[in-house]
Design brief:
alpha/beta, Alpha/beta knot, 5-stranded parallel β-sheet, two-stranded antiparallel sheet, 38% helix
Length: 246
Amino acid sequence: MLSVSLLAAFPDLVEHALDFGVTGRARERGLWRWQGFGLHDFAADARKSIDARPAAGGPGMVLMAGPLDRTLAAARQWHQCKPTVVFLSPDGAPLTQARVRDFAQLTDLCFVAGRYEGIDQRWIDVNVDAVVSLGDYVLSGGELAAAVVVDACVRLLPGALGDGESTQYESFADTQGGRLDWPQYALTGGEASLPEGLQGGDHAAIERWRLKQALARTWRRRPDLLARAQLSLEERALLREIALES
C-alpha cells in the first residue's frame, strides 16, 4: 500500500480532489491511504500563525520552520517512518512521467505545499528530498499541484485502473519518453467514418498506423521529445515518411 501525506495550509483542497474517479476508487480498494496535515493546527500561538515577513525585507510572507517541523513530526508518526518528502514549488525540477513512476514505487510519500512567497530555505535544506514543479507558472499554493502528482502516482498502482494496459499505451508511457499518444476514436457503430488505417481488422497495419500517428503528433506538438528520444529504425523510417508528407 502507498501511504501519502500532505503538509499544507489548506489540505482539504486536496482531500476533496482525491475523493473522485480513479483515486477515490483505488483508496476504497485499499491500494493507497491518505492523510492531510494542516499547518495552522500546529502553530505555536493563539493566532495560529504559520508565516512571517521575509528576512532582510521584501514583499509577501514566508512559511516558518516551526509549524512545519511540528507538522512533519505528526506526519512521520502517521507514516510510522521517515517518508520521502517532496516539496511542490515552481523552482523545482519539471515533473515527468519517469519521476512519477519513481514516486509510485515508494511506500511512503509526504508532499509539502508552499504558500505566499515560499518556505524558509533552512527547513527545505534539512527536510526535503525532492523539489518538483508542474511547469513554468505560479499557483496560489502547492495544494493543487500536490493533488496532480498524487493522481498521477495512484493511477500507476497495480489494480488502480480497470485495464492494466492503459498506462502502457498513452503519452510519455514509453521509458524513453519519446512520443505522445495517437489519436483515439470511440467505437460507436460509425466505422465507415474512421480513418482508413483503423479499418479492415489487420492488427499489424493498425499498430503501424497508430505508431505513425503518435510520431506525427509528437513531431508537430512536442519536437523536443523526439530530439532526445532513442528511436527505433521503424520509428525513424516513419518520421521520414511524415516529413515527406508534410
